[in-house]
Amino acid sequence: MAESHDIAVHAEHDHKPHGWRRWVFATNHKDIGTMYLIAAGTMFLIGGLAAMAIRAQLFKSGMKLFDPAMFNSLTTMHGLIMIFGAIMPSWVGLANWMIPMQIGAPDMALPRLNNLSFWILPFAFTLMIASFFVPGGAPAGGWTMYPPLMQQFGDSFPMLIFAIHLMGISSILGAINVVVTIMNLRAPGMSLLRMPLFVWTWLITAYLLIAVMPVLAGAVTMQLTDHFFGTSFFNAAGGGDPVLFLHVFWFFGHPEVYILILPAFGVISEIIPTFSRKPLFGYEAMVYATASIAFLSFIVWGHHMFTVGMPVAAQMFFMLSTMLIAVPTGVKVFNWTATMWRGSLSFEPPMLFAIAFLFLFSIGGFSGLMLALVPSDYQYHGTYFVVAHFHYVLVPGAVFAIFGAVYYWLPKWCGRMYDMRLAKWHFWLSVIFVNVLFFPQHFLGLAGMPRRIPDYAPQFTDWNMVSSIGGFIFGASQVLFPYIVWKCVRSGKPVEANSPWDGAHGLEWELPSPAPYHSWTTPPSAAVLAHGAEH
Amino acid sequence: MAPNIEGEAPAGAQSAGRRDARGLTASQRRNVRITTWVMSLIALAFYIGFIVLTVSRAHR
Question: Searching chain A, which residue's CA lies closest to the CA of residue B9?
């Protein structure tokens, strides 16, 4: 009887709008989070198809699937789509879903702004992708948009600049919403140092976004005025300096890398304690390490441009400050390992992705240290070694963490369990072939193969073939992921308990499954907070 | 707890005393406003600041 009453009350609480109005006018953080995740998934697919095309062209020396201009467009658009269209919106989607539930808030603080942040994106993505179809083709100067090369493209140039502005506005509005929500809407008793690590890493990420997205917007605006209004910010003929763009761009670009990876650190810090059945080792150290990494990200931009030329003192500064990042990152890797030490481990899909993250992200971190050394960087710069490095950080790093997060929280979102066997197939195919795809690129780079070329000398063929085969299988195996999610939402086995994971702590697991449309309509009580809090 | 498109609020909020339809107290509403303004001004400062910095460096 009591149960049926609860269900009736629950249904009354839901009273969600139906039809298209639910999505177009959405102010509910869960609906907006879902839309972000679907949009990001679509962009993953488009960016992934571009990646497959790139690997097809590079399958062997002399392939002529695309002309060089189209190949350059594919690499440029692959980078832009994956960074701004896929990974960043995935994190914003997860933030929308999880932050209010994790801090005991009823919703995001600014729900209508939240709606605007999302609905800007489809227009930005369309504008960016539409540039493939204008005269002159899509931008082909690399995702870094260096002048004067970038300004030599036709109509696609202002289209990309406008798309970047839109995506930047969306990110800034989203970040303001995250900061305002976390600073003001935490449940009574949820002090800053009791917040889950995912919330902490997102708070710090939001500060990074607020600081650096306007810098990117400023830089591309100046390119726009150089091109159309006769200014000479980056035009040497008019007294400007193209190298200045590199400085401004990388002042944005390096923190951007951490914008992509810090929420991943948060997710891993949620998953590993759950499946180790132990509290996170060194919670406060993790918080301070995240803040240190964020601070350092502002003073290391020069390591992206050692070969451009700069005073030795500046090279030394950027080299040493970059190497310093290894310290807080090492703290994190050590703490995750120490959390697992003597834990009661189990290896469900989220934990498998977290452990793979730990190993493979560390490989990307170590190759990053090699690139931080000025003399070494002179050898590696502009080669496939760099491509291998940042793909290790972003694919088995950020993307694996996104997979882990979805496999971890999906049962809470839809109240159903996914097909564990298929999810493990997804994991093993991904983890094996991501290495087949990217590890040989280290060898190619060390052997001297330049990046961003549509063809190469025949001696690079063997490892390129291996890399392409890895890429095709890795790409094809990702089809499993949307199928697993779709199957779970439609017909997964209902989850009886609030949490399907017996080691999980946190306020989100105190809510029923599926999470009600309006959660924490009254703040959690002290008892619930004490039971759910991790620390 | 956010109002849906019809502007209704869930029952929990309405019974929560001094909380408004979105479940926020008066001080939370004030702090939300202040934090939003501060964050927006920081973003604007970085935008304008870096353009000014670039102008000053570009034409020396």
Answer: A13
A49 contact B CB<8A:
no
- Mean pLDDT per 10-residue segment, chain A (535 residues): 42 70 94 97 97 97 92 96 97 97 94 96 96 92 92 89 96 96 92 95 97 96 93 90 94 97 98 96 96 97 94 96 97 97 97 98 96 96 97 97 98 96 98 98 97 95 98 97 97 92 93 92 82 63
- Cβ distance of A518 and B1 shorter than 8 Å: yes
> Who's near A522: CB < 8 A, 6+ residues apart?
B12, B13, B15, B16, B23
Distance of alpha carbon B34 from its chain centroid, rounded?
A: 7
User: What pTM, to 2 d.p., does this model score?
Assistant: 0.92
Cα–Cα distance for residue pair A74/A334, rounded to 1 Å: 38
Contacts of B58 in chain A (CB under 8 A): 232-234, 239-241, 244
Cα–Cα distance between A426 and A477 in angstroms, integer? 6
ipTM, two decimals, is 0.80
Taking the CA of residue A176 and the nearest CA in chain B, the distance in Å comes to 6
Please indicate if any CB of chain B lies within 8 Å of the CB of A217.
Answer: yes
Nearest CA in chain A to B60: A239
Query: Which of B4, B12, B54 lies closest to A16 in CB terms?
Result: B4
CA–CA separation, A410 and A485 (whole Å):
8
Sign of CA dihedral A64, A440, A267, A490: positive
B-facing residues of A in 58-117 (CB < 8 A) are: 106-111
Render the burial of A68-80: b for 16+ CB within 10 Å, e for the rest. eebbbbbbbbbbb
CA pair distance A274, A255, nearest whole angstrom: 29
Q: Measure the CA–CA gap between A520 and A104, rounded to whole angstroms.
A: 6
CA-CA distances (angstroms) from residue A525 to A506, A528, A532?
14, 5, 10
